[in-house]
Amino acid sequence: MEFFPTFFAVLVYLLSLFGLGPKNAEPRATAPFQGSGFVDPSPSSIGEIMAFYAERYRNDPAPRRSLGNATGLTTVLIFGPALKATGELYGSLDRTTIAQARGRHLKVLATIHNAGSGRFDRGTVHAFLQNPAARTRAIEEIQKLLSTYGLDGVCLDLENVPPEDREALTAFFRDLSSRLRPRYFLVAACLPAKTGDDSKTAWMGAYDFAALGPYLDLAVLMAYDEHRPDGPPGPVASLGWVEKVVRYAVTTLPRQKIVLGLPAYGYVWGPKNGRAITHAGALSLLAQHGLRSLWDATAQVPYFRYTQAGTTYAVWYEDKRSGMAKAALARRYGLRGVAVWRLGYEDPELWKTLEFPE
After folding, report:
1. Vertex 340, ends 101 and 315: CA angle to 5°?
2. What is the secondary structure of 171-219 as a DSSP string?
3. Which domain holds residue 50?
4. Alpha-carbon span 53 to 106, nearest angstrom
């Protein structure tokens, strides 16, 4: 009875000398799915460099141009169909964008969201999550979408979820994962920037990181909007605040699943609410007013102020230096990688700092 196991072991060894034999042939049932192209991050490298693809208007050339120029990318998350309360998806994905990403050998995920009306609809996502039949329909439609377009997986960007939907949200991800992961589709989620867990907090309370972790391959931390356009001026994502977000995340989620979201935009605050601005827009304002940006050494972000028609405006934005500081944080904490929101908004030099960190 000892002959066959010994003979088989010797045979496997001999085959391995010639590069033959089984490679990581552990069955799916006993091997946690890591997703295609998994890279184990180390403190000196970033395993994934991801970016969101979204258009401000139909045929917006900025994200497409950025997708063509962004070096080091591993994954593109295409903002796609929105979710109805019934679980149906409406909207489509652009096959040209998918082909462009595939031409660069990138993984492609569809980002499904509840922002179909231009804002993250609280009522829609609540009605959806509280309807088991709608959740089942959504899972079926997502699987069909991924198969139809030949994608690698899905990223759910469900925001403004009522805190009372916490258990239903976890149940949805559990069921979605059970359907998609055995079919080798990645399951990702955009998670709010939390520095602690409070199940009753608006916008964040519905997300139970520890409960969601087993059902996710990628957990994208939206570590931005520390200062929002409807509040006082300040950094979109100061380094200290981002580190607090990361410190909490690593206590509840596996580090190899966490992807740190990097903002590529900023805000201009005037006498009323602020408005979003791209890196190019910030440079344009500097040139228009003959100014140079200032650097907040504590927050590790650039900013400036200008006066127009007697009104003073404050601008806080992001550039390659601020992005590099946050990427270094992701490396230091051993995270899976980073995800830029969004293509077309960024400092073009950002990609070099991510691919070849200083």
Report:
1. 135
2. HHHHHHHHHHGGGT-EEEEEEE--SS--TTSTTTTT--HHHHGGG-SEE
3. 39-264+318-355
4. 13
Give the span between the Cα atoms of 297 and 235, in whole angstroms. 12
Q: What residues act catalytically? A: 159
**CA distances, 132 to each of 127, 135, 138, 175, 310 (Å):** 10, 5, 10, 10, 56
Q: How far apart are CA 253 and CA 197, in angstroms?
A: 13
Structure tokens at 218: 């990628």
pTM: 0.88
**Residue 10, CA distances (Å) to 7, 17, 23, 124 in order:** 5, 11, 16, 60
State pLDDT tens for residues 281-333.
999 999 999 999 999 999 999 999 999 999 999 999 999 999 999 999 999 99
Percent helix, strand and coil across the chain, each to the nearest 5: 35, 20, 40
Count of domains forming the chain = 1
Which amino acid is present at 169? L
Compute CA distances 228 → 122, 235, 285, whole Å. 19, 9, 20
Residue 215 contacts residue 207 (beta carbons within 8 Å): no
For residue 166, being part of any structural domain is answered with yes
CB contact at 8 A, 41 and 337: yes
Residue 331 lies in a domain: yes
199 falls within a domain: yes
- d(CA 352, CA 355) in angstroms, rounded, equals 5
Picking from 280, 249, 258, 262, the residue whose alpha carbon sits closest to that of residue 321 is 262
CA distance 74 to 51: 9
Supply angle C-alpha 124, 226, 166, rounded to 5.
35
The mean-pLDDT minimum among 20-24, 87-91, 352-356 falls in 20-24
Q: What's residue 138's pLDDT?
A: 98
Total residue length of the chain: 358
CATH, residue 128: 3.20.20.80
Among candidate residues 38, 39, 44, 32, the one with its CA nearest the CA of residue 333: 44
**Would strands 294-296 and 301-308 be described as parallel, antiparallel, or unpaired?**
antiparallel
Q: What is the pLDDT of residues 87-123, one digit of tens each?
A: 999 999 999 999 999 999 999 999 999 997 779 999 9
279 domain residue, yes or no: no
